[in-house]
Amino acid sequence: RTQAEMAHTCRGTINLSTAHIDTEDSCNIVLSNGGRTYHLKANSEVERQRWVTALELAKAKAIRMRNNQSDDSGDEEPASQSDKSELHGTLKTLSSKLEDLSTCNDLIAKHGAALQRSLSELENLKLPAESGEKIKAVNERATLFRITSNAMINACRDFLDLAETHSRKWQRVLQYEREQRIRLEETIEQLAKQHNSLERACRGAPGLSSSSTGITSTAKGSVQSAKGEASDEDEETEYFDAMEDAPAFITVTADPKHHRRSGSNLSGASEGHPEDWNLEDSVFESSNQSSYNESTCKDLLPKKRRRTRIPDKPNYSLNLWSIMKNCIGKELSKIPMPVNFNEPLSMLQRLTEDLEYHELLDKAVKCESSTEQMCFVAAFSVSSYSTTVHRTAKPFNPLLGETYELDRLEEFGFRSLCEQVSHHPPAAAHHVYSKRGWTLWQEITIASKFRGKYLSIMPLGTIHLEFHSSGNHYVWRKVTSTVHNIIVGKLWIDQSGEIEIVNHKSKDKCQLKFTPYSYFSRDVPRKVTGVVSDADGKAHYVMSGTWDEKMECSKIVQSSHGSTSTEGKQKTVYQTLSPKVLWKKYPLPENAENMYFFSDLALTLNEPEERVAPTDSRLRPDQRLMESGRWDEANVEKQRLEEKQRAVRRRREAEAVEALEEGEDYEGYIPLWFERKVDAVTGELICVYKGGYWEAKDKQDWSTCPDIF
């Protein structure tokens, strides 16, 4: 369009050559270019896809036009001598071939002319009419042959001219890409050297003056602060920046016996008592010394001998893009996926894996202080992500009515039950009872979106944990999981977001922040930080660690207002005692990389067991075939089960329509072992266990179970 037309018909312009085209949902399109963003809405998903295709084509055309304009500028640096010689050699070969074609063309023209003369002479002779017509036809074909050969040689000559014309462009593009690669390599190398030098400087620095804030350690997210002449703070006092505006903590180990408040520049806001940090009797100390050493790990092994390995994962190749290109913007649970993208566990079993570090809750039962108990609950909430660091495969979507039990009552004191209570959207209810003094329940709905380069998994729903003796009732939600490099590169997973754990009885809170990975960040990857505070907002403990390795807890001795940040917020500085390790990840079993990176618990989850319900995930045939390495058969079986489930859904929808026509109510699918109730604490509608499963197991009465397999 002309500028005049655009002034009358356009609200604005955007340069498509540098624009980013994205889709929000089935009808919305987002165009962004720097600070300018346009939101476009189509009438339907089909129309949206047409617009996206047209915009992508226009973007490609705009990029070509921009490149052609830059080619004519002539400002680029000349190519290297090797590039020139290589290109000239190619052009020389093309010229040689063109000369051969020219020679052939001359010969064709020469012999063709002679042939035509001979045919013309034959035409002039007095021959029968039939022979004259045939000779005339041959003459015409010879003429066409000569015209075609001339056209071919002209096309070859044009090709050589174009090759010579665009040679400079090819040289510049190649040179530019090479320079960009070299520049990136040099930048990464320089950053790595700076990173190492900063680490060495932090570890080797003898100290700083009392007016200095410290040197941040990029390796552990801590700052070493030394005792200056004017400061009487102990060298080993630990400092933490507040959660709200400083994700990195400032830490130095402290000796509580030599801690003094007099003369301290940190006195004021709140005060704790070092003697409360009882090194002999504290539950923290017992968790640090006994729960996570090898001897205790061996003691925690179940009495019943369970399997320690599964068949190795087959090495099947698959064209990922051929499947994924039609899935962009769709709900993951609605995409038909082959088992090649799965691991041989269902989502119900993955949910049960949250209990791998159940002993943290057993220890929390023994805590007399609700804030101490909160620390163990916080560590437990983080520990559920430790198994995901290498687990980039997708678990099986459970069928509606599918269940999974994990009965470890005699071995570890708890028994767990999961049921798929909804299919669209997919929702699973989970209930765990422990005879050691706690009950956990949750209903999780998985919302997921495939965005081309990454996959976002958003667990929706609350997790409830109640301790029987104290009545403390904790509630929290899960963070977002993101799987990166879906199309190109090595898959890796990250956790990001915040968790707020609330004790609804004492009103204690814990704010945990999962820091998303950043290539340019100086923080430890997969970092988690948090603060435990009471009902009055007074901070008692600082939580720190990583979601794939360990979590530590440090008791706050004093807190005060520190310096003002660049955003204008005033920092709170926490002075703490030395940290205690609350949770540490168990090492993976041998050969885990060939067994889907399963942990010791995960290896046992799909182990066949007797007396389980006929709807149990262990009995799912496609999952069992996949675990055995028979993926082709598993894909066939998976399609059969999904089609069977669709048929049941269509029948249920037909029943609903029929009931509506007759003016009757239709309840839809009713979960077998769970029922929906309004939670008294949060006011949310949630599926809770209504009982009956373990009694049915004792009697082996599964008559109420649906036929889903």
Automatic annotation (TrEMBL):
One cellular-component annotation, GO: cytosol
Coiled coil (residue ranges): 174-201
Biased composition (Low complexity): 207-222
Gene Ontology molecular function terms on file: cholesterol binding
Subcellular location per the Swiss-Prot or TrEMBL entry: Membrane
Any one Gene Ontology BP term: lipid transport
Membrane topology: Peripheral membrane protein
Transport is among the record's keywords: yes
Region ranges (Disordered): 65-87, 202-237, 254-278
Domain of life: Eukaryota
Chief localisation class: membrane
Keywords per UniProt: Coiled coil, Lipid transport, Lipid-binding, Membrane, Phosphoprotein, Transport
UniProt domain PH: residue ranges: 1-60
Entries under PANTHER family matching the protein: OXYSTEROL-BINDING PROTEIN 2 (PTHR10972:SF194), OXYSTEROL-BINDING PROTEIN-RELATED (PTHR10972)
Entry's family note: Belongs to the OSBP family.
Name of this protein: Oxysterol-binding protein
Organism: Eudyptula minor (Little blue penguin)
This protein's encoding gene: OSBP2
